[in-house]
Amino acid sequence: xxxxxxxxxxxxxxxxxxxxxxxxxxxxxxxxxxxxxxxxxxxxxxxxxxxxxxxxxxxxxxxxxxxxxxxxxxxxxxxxxxxxxxxxxxxxxxxxxxxxxxxxxxxxxxxxxxxxxxxxxxxxxxxxxxxxxxxxxxxxxxxxxxxxxxxxxxxxxxxxxxxxxxxxxxxxxxxxxxxxxxxxxxxxxxxxxxxxxxxxxxxxxxxxxxxxxxxxxxxxxxxxxxxxxxxxxxxxxxxxxxxxxxxxxxxxxxxxxxxxxxxxxxxxxxxxxxxxxxxxxxxxxxxxxxxxxxxxxxxxxxxxxxxxxxxxxxxxxxxxxxxxxxxxxxxxxxxxxxxxxxxxxxxxxxxxxxxxxxxxxxxxxxxxxxxxxxxxxxxxxxxxxxxxxxxxxxxxxxxxxxxxxxxxxx
Length: 410
Fold this sequence. Notes:
Blueprint: H1 2-24, H2 31-38, H3 41-69, H4 80-100, H5 104-128, E1 130-132, E2 135-140, E3 145-146, H6 148-169, H7 175-192, H8 196-213, H9 217-237, H10 239-249, H11 256-259, H12 261-272, H13 297-327, H14 334-358, H15 376-392
């Protein structure tokens, strides 16, 4: 009797900790336990690290944007954009985790339905959305405005991967023309808004998926020619694209100050902090930069935290892409391979375009930096995309385990 009483505190002390250990043990058959051991925890850690860096970056850019967008009628607090971003992060992280827990079949069905819904919303934005800076990309829902094209990206990639994966089962299926029609429809709606940057992302990801699906070299050459033709067509018939390309490649000395203000200022802000930066809150050139909290947040990071921090962010993006590619080396499921590779390509292409614009290597595109830039639509959509990527790269370590595995008695 004495021994039993002596052991009671140990049992009570174990309590919740013991339950957690049981849920996360390698022998656990619970959904959460399986998810914990299946998920690529390194990839999840890299994504969370980027989200954390993004909060710090938005906090650095928020005062500059608050001053720029305040007027006689509206005054924004210096940390207005930071607190709003913190709310979006609080919503997005659970979304990322929940989506990463989805079975592959359910994630695929969600993406297919999401593609159809988002195409309708992109069309609605193009024709009925509110005009902002000469473009119709947003749909207002009273409490918030949503950019449907951001949500369409991950769903479009997974749907296209599903179509192309059918080619391995039946080479005679016309899946390549079908995905071409889908991509052309999306591109036409985006150009109607207009949104040339997003159109480029969709087109480039589609070409990457076709190459991974194993199309012929001749077809790749034809796609390359079509891409060049598309850029030429945009230059001839799309005024905004022509203006930006002309100002980037053939600057007019008399208009240089106005046409190159954003790119020149972003370069000035990026290099103002040198290698190590001015320190948090120490930047001053950022107050002259338009869209400091969104399109040009990479430059703000350069001023306050230095070029070394910018290189570190670029390495993080590269690490995510390399991690996905390594995970896919032994992938046998064609759909999972295409979907995961396409999502990683979209993530990397978007980051590359944003950093190229900030460093003056590309004309302004209005492209956010994944998980770093401010924006609710971008943050939630990227979290869905990363959740899908984590779902498609999960590996079950128990598929070949013995049915006689003994669960831990503790």
